[in-house]
Inverse folding.
């Protein structure tokens, strides 16, 4: 029995070395807990293309937007730690764990952190047919709203959900949360006038704001952001109102250190590329490129 165990460990070690030597030798699946068109999906495709160019292997973005990210998380946590399954996670990953202690995985211990890529505030958007033209008018409008007031988000536990509940507390309103399976479908319904407002990822809403299909009123970052310099930060009228999300890449647990190092190096290199940095800043976010342990913390 002892002999079998020792052989098993040796086989795993040899397997790891063999895998890291020519990695990657086949396509890599990048699971994202979001529908196409949302901030997380946009980042997955942006970095996925750069990794494809470097590795000469296709990075396949696999959108799994159900169950507040739990399906995507479980697929990653239970995948082989061979570097061929990666996870483009965002803040919903740990928020969901705080809301649901019975997840089929531990949000930190059952994953290998590679690098936090960006951090970003959210954008408060409304349908342009709604009366408010600025944040001050929006606050007054919601406080005096007659009837059922609703806000949408990318899903339960998302940054938009938290920002909406924080606004309920700060403004002393009772808006009902409407969760969607991703930013894109939530914005489609906001454009159609199905509910009243949304705190959404800036990159996800940018095209709709520029085209006039949505009106942006404020950001949830701690201060104004260059790409929306004319918009106030929520904290300017509501002290303490700050919601900043994180986005980063993780892998299944016990990913061999050589693979962690290789993937981390590439992700940081991509984050520092001028076209990527410019795109991140234009979307109202901030590039990070953290070390794995800093990301874990």
């Amino acid at each position: 029995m002892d002999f079998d165990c020792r052989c098993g460990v040796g086989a795993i070690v040899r397997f790891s070395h063999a895998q890291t030597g020519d990695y990657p030798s086949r396509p890599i699946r990048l699971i994202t807990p979001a529908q196409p068109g949302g901030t997380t999906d946009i980042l997955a495709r942006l970095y996925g293309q750069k990794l494809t160019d470097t590795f000469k292997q296709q990075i396949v973005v696999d959108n799994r937007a159900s169950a507040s990210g739990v399906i995507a998380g479980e697929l990653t946590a239970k995948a082989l730690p061979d570097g061929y399954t990666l996870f483009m996670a965002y803040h919903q990953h740990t928020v969901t764990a705080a809301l649901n202690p019975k997840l089929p995985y531990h949000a930190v211990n059952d994953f290998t952190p590679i690098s936090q890529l960006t951090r970003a505030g959210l954008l408060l958007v409304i349908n342009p047919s709604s009366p408010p033209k600025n944040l001050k008018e929006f606050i007054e409008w919601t406080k005096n709203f007659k009837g059922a007031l609703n806000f949408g988000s990318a899903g339960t536990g998302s940054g938009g959900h938290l920002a909406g509940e924080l606004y309920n507390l700060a403004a002393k309103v009772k808006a009902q949360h409407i969760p969607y399976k991703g930013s894109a479908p939530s914005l489609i319904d906001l454009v159609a006038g199905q509910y009243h407002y949304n705190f959404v990822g800036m990159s996800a809403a940018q095209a709709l704001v520029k085209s006039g299909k949505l009106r942006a009123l404020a950001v949830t970052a701690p201060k104004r952001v260059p790409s929306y310099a004319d918009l106030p930060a929520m904290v300017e009228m509501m002290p303490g109102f700050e919601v900043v999300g994180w986005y980063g890449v993780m892998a299944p647990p016990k990913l061999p250190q050589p693979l962690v190092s290789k993937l981390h190096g590439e992700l940081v290199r991509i984050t520092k590329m001028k076209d990527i940095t410019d795109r991140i800043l234009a979307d109202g976010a901030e590039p990070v490129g953290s070390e794995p342990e800093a990301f874990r913390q």
